Amino acid sequence: MQVIVSVNRFDPEDSKGKYWQDYNLEIGENSTVLDALIKIREEIDGSLAMRCSCRSAICGSCAMRVNGHARLACNTKLVDMTDDAGMIKVEPMTNLPVIKDLVIDQQMFWDKIKQVSPWLQSEGPEPKGEYVASNESMNHLSGVMACIMCGACVSDCSALEVDKNFIGPAALAKAYRFVADPRDSKSVERLGVLNEYSGIWDCTRCYECVEVCPKGVGPMDRIMALREEAISVGYDNTIGARHADAFSDLVEDSGWLDELRLPIKTVGIFNLPALLNFAPVGLRALVKGKMPAIFHHNVPNVENVRKLFKRIRNNQNIDD
Amino acid sequence: MLEHDVLVIGAGLAGMRAALSAQEMGANVAIVSKVHPVRSHSNAAQGGINAALTDRGDDWNDHAYDTVKGSDYLGDQDAIEIMCSEAGQELINLEHMGVIFNRDDQGLLGTRAFGGQQKARTFFVADFTGQAMLHVLYEQLMKSSIRVYEEWFVLALIIEGGVCCGVTALEIATGRVYVIRAKTVIMCSGGVGRVFEPSTNALIVTGDGIGQAYSSGASLMDMEMIQYHPTTLKGSGVLITEGARGEGAYLLNSEGKRFMETYAPNMMELASRDVVSRAEQTEINEGRGVDGCVYLDLRHLGEDLIRERLTQIVDIGQDFAGVNIINEPIPIRPGMHYIMGGIKTDVNGRTNIPGLYAAGECACISVHGGNRLGANSLLDTVIFGRRSGAHAAGYAKDQEFPEFDVQGYVKGYEQKLKSLADRQKGERWAQIRNDLGKDMDQYFGVYREERGMQILLSRIEDCKKRYETVVLQDRGTIFNTDLIFTLELGFMLDCAETIVKSGIERKESRGAHSRTDYPLRNDKDWLTHVVVSKTDNGPEISHLPVKITKWTPEERKY
Questions:
Q1: Which residues from chain A sit within 8 angstroms of residue B35, using beta carbons?
Q2: What would the pLDDT profile of B8-40 be if each residue is shown by its tens digit?
Q3: B387 burial via Cβ count (<10 Å: 0-12, 13-18, 19+)
Q4: A167, A170, B362, B376 from B37: Cα distances, Å
Q5: Whose CB has fewer CB within 10 Å in chain B, the N or C terminal residue?
Q6: Per-residue pLDDT band at B320 (split at 50, 70, 90)
Q7: H or E element that contains B408
Q8: β-pair partners for B185
Q9: B113/A3 Cα distance (integer angstroms)
């Protein structure tokens, strides 16, 4: 079939800046995006720079943006991506600086991984044989160890886009691998660090990382699991944790969310500086007619909602 | 001045294990790798790692015997004994580092069956054992202070007065040439896969280290021993793990028959890889294949087992063959997978060049002989990676940094690269590389014979001539992959030549080297290693006796 691969190019050694270059080529129906790029590199333009190696979605080298989302080029079929004109758009990943063409600088990615002390920390003398652990726990971890560090989640993370300090989905998924490892003895300390600014509470839950992960790691799901774990070991006095609590309390109380009281409950009624920070948003909401009602009413049959909360609490043995 | 007691080339399992063990011994260590460590090809090992755990009623002697028999008696038995007897402890080391091996009902390490072995002694992480181990070793590397020269391409070893003193290397991101001075260098650069087309191997597996060591005077051994894996996808050559057959999958011909009954009635699909690949090729050659393939059938294993233990190949089947392996058999064929031969070393990784060590697939100790057992390669990398790292660190303690003209090397290579970039007329690397790969596949396949290998040798010579006028399209300095591929091709051509020369030399069929013109094993004349060394007149062949400790060669039946 005939395809047009439009590549966002950049060479720091020329003065052209970033530009799009279209390559027309004839290629087999079953080909992947990587097949096409290799064909370009070998037959049309040897100056096209990219990373690739295994061709089977295990080395994590060839993550790039195809039609606006990060993917591995090697397991992305061309036919699934081409538009009516037979065109696809290929760009380097975002949130990371570009070195040349499709090659990004991985430094920041690995710096963030290193931030979570990504190695097993067990306590006491090592056993003579292996650590005893259930197969379920190891299987559960294999869902996270399946991460190939391709960077797709980091590229498309909407929180990182606005705050470069956010530790990001890949590193947090890596952190989860240790927190959930029964052999690791530093879970509480790890959660303490992750609970700080730029950690687990900075995720905006946009789901993009889950969508783009080529290995089903589900970074955001791991971040949510870390949040739960953090609260359960006693890290419940962060804005994030209080936000979650306030959210739940308000819904239990009235059957639906009281948007006016949510921020107040989250930051605390006596926390004037923080409350003042909400003033501009509040004013804008008022001007646009989006201000939540001051007198929040209960939904009909609110007692049923409360019953649901009670039942969940009983099932999980959670104290009030 | 960049300098280290121990400089490891390559950051796969062997390289990282070597670096960690050298550091443990107190050496100042660094790794230089053309890719980031976790991009290394060790990732691709799917099935597992072998070890005989004595507290499970297994005996490392049995593992050693299976390995010797699997090697078709070409493996050196002293080295095999070391590998198998140290396997249990190393497996536990890996578990302690954090590898999430599969467990049994008691929460202890679980096993699966693998080819060519009497007992299930393969420990595994689903079907991505290599990746799981590689990432854990990288965790340990991050914990250590070991410097990694990431995405630096080694141009050549530096040999002064017959001693290895470091490397000249190119920083890919800047195009700058550096010398890294070292008291010892450990080559852990992997195999030669892409010399063949197709191959299961990653695109980076281009025999650089083997080529560099050979050019510097290191002897290569058993280079003709190229393993064809029985289950690879047609066209792309993508690997389907032996773990599939380990879990019970069948091989079927076009008549729907489990044809391994004919070739290995006892072990069936789990005979040694060379045996199974030959059986498949014979079925295909005799007209009982389907479109150049036979079938791998997993359907009877059931969806639950497949999804838990063979996760990755469900995706591979879907993505690369359009087959749902849970419901339909998948067409597969033998595909080039591994080189048993490589840089000749002793059991501590030492080569014939003082200061130069080798470990992992690029080395030949030889523990795999004529045919490697599945799941012995991961074991080889960690055992001999660790041993060579420790030995190199000890050796470096008594050495001073060598003095030599560092700037001379830098200027020399800058000049070479410049004249390559300035060349205006000639062919690009891609055409030559693809021609070479297809020729190797055609004439050095599962079956080989004199005439074909001679044709192949002349084709390689022709490719070498074409390479002399190779031209670049990218003449920039920053991240110039066109240049890297061109440099790799030079090493690939040297590897190809030594493979074929060695293949022509061995006039018998042993292990993976199956010659239609010499179809039988001949212990009288050929129970010997074929060694190849570089001279001014081209490759020179010699022989070395096989080390036999307790297992005398016997007929090999599965």
A1: 51, 53, 61
A2: 999 999 999 999 999 999 999 999 999 999 999
A3: buried
A4: 21, 17, 17, 21
A5: N
A6: confident
A7: helix B406-422
A8: B7, B356
A9: 45
